[in-house]
Design goal:
The chain is an alpha+beta fold. It has helices at 3-12, 39-50, 57-69, 113-123, 131-140, 152-164, 250-255, 258-267, 272-286, 288-291; strands at residues 31-35, 90-95, 101-107, 128-130, 170-173, 176-179, 196-202, 208-214, 235-238, 242-248, 296-302, 307-311, 317-322, 326-330. The structure holds N-hydroxy-L-asparagine.
Length: 342
């Protein structure tokens, strides 16, 4: 499917999506929660693992991430948008119920960075491998080196971007366009700009795991690493408490150790939704003017199987699959269209 169509499916009908409220999150297992509407397919792949007897959350989140990395005309993986030099560089991480974790950052020409991240976790004493070293490790572990070709969508988008070469996308807040310095939800032509899949799951044995895979912020500086492969920023799992993942402007998430913060709020007794909201507020309260120009969203799942999400701006959606439901929700958000707090 064409990337734009794939990504706009629910963005076009955003207002028709149900707004999530914590009351809806009854608490069930197994369960999987993913960022964005493309999480529906991802959750389906994860569910194939979770719904089998003994299906492990770790295998489920890897399967979900692999699923979207296979969507070559989609939003993450080798079909994603390149950096400023026209090179697709991928970031991914994975974390299990024992606090084992692995990540790759800035890896090129490898189709399944999430599975390389899992190998880093399982086969090395390290947590993160970057760039050429990550690629070399992948190849040594049997991952084929793919051609450096951009997907058709990415080629077009890059050619378009080169005309101005500005790292200055636009926020579309409920159709009111506003200039912003960094990429939040939408490009100027209205096509969605979100290139990250984060998912967290709990299996029937009450074990939590999470995974993130991304091509990162479109047209980023070559070598730039966002929050996605950073444990505690783009993903955090604590099997006693819960798990969280993020999407949006990675630099802001790193600055507050975002997903670690969300999990710590849940440890203090906040619901997943309230914990995500408090983490967003941490960003907004420090610099309201800056917060108006960017987007960050968190999703979280606690040990009871309750889940929630929150974002700074409108437009963030997330997908949930359990034995009780299979749907996309709009997340609540902090800033109104005029930038004031709701
Ligand atoms: C990053 N957090 O590289 C990612 C981008 C993202 O939807 O989430 N896009 O900063």
């Amino acid at each position: 499917m064409d990337r734009k169509k794939f990504l706009t499916l629910s963005s076009l009908g955003l207002s028709s999506l149900p707004l999530f409220s914590f009351a809806a999150s009854a608490g069930t297992k197994p369960i999987v929660i993913s960022t964005w509407e493309s999480g529906m397919g991802v959750n389906g792949a994860a569910w194939e693992v979770l719904s089998k007897p003994g299906g492990r959350a770790l295998d489920a989140v890897e399967a979900g991430a692999v699923h979207i990395e296979n969507e070559i005309s989609c939003c993450v993986g080798l079909g994603g948008y390149p950096d400023r030099d026209g090179i697709v560089t991928l970031d991914a991480c994975i974390m299990d119920e024992h606090a084992n974790c692995g990540a790759v950052a800035g890896i090129e020409q490898i189709k399944h960075p999430i599975s390389v991240a899992r190998k880093v976790m399982e086969k090395t004493p390290h947590v993160i491998l970057v760039g050429n070293g990550a690629q070399q490790f992948a190849i040594e572990n049997g991952f084929p080196k793919e051609p450096a070709e951009l997907s058709e969508d990415a080629k077009k988008a890059y050619a378009e971007w080169l005309k101005k070469s500005e790292y200055k996308p636009v926020i579309n807040i409920e159709n009111k366009k506003q200039n912003g310095p960094f990429a939040p939800n939408f490009f100027e032509d209205g096509s969605p700009n979100h290139d990250t899949m984060g998912l967290v799951a709990m299996d029937a044995n009450n074990n939590l795991s999470g995974a993130v895979t991304t091509s990162g912020m479109a047209f980023k500086l070559h070598g730039r690493v966002g929050d996605s492969p950073i444990i505690g920023a783009g993903l955090f799992v604590d099997n006693e408490v819960g798990a969280a993942t993020s999407s949006g402007l990675g630099e802001e998430v790193i600055r507050i150790c975002g997903t670690h913060l969300v999990v710590e709020f849940m440890r203090q007794g906040y619901s997943p939704e309230a914990a995500c909201k408090k983490a967003c507020e941490r960003i907004v309260n420090r610099d309201r003017a800056k917060a108006k120009t960017l987007q960050v969203g968190f999703v979280a799942l606690n040990k009871k199987g309750e889940y929630g999400a929150y974002s700074i701006q409108s437009g963030f959606v997330f997908s949930v699959k359990s034995g009780k439901e299979n749907r996309v929700y709009q997340s609540k958000f902090i800033l109104k269209n005029d930038g004031t707090v709701k």
